[in-house]
Amino acid sequence: MTLLEAQACEVPVVASNVGSVSEAVSSQSAILVEAGNSDVLADALMKSLTTILSENPREFIVRERSMQQMLNKYSQLVAE
Question: What average pLDDT does the segment 57-77 reach?
Answer without folding.
Answer: 86
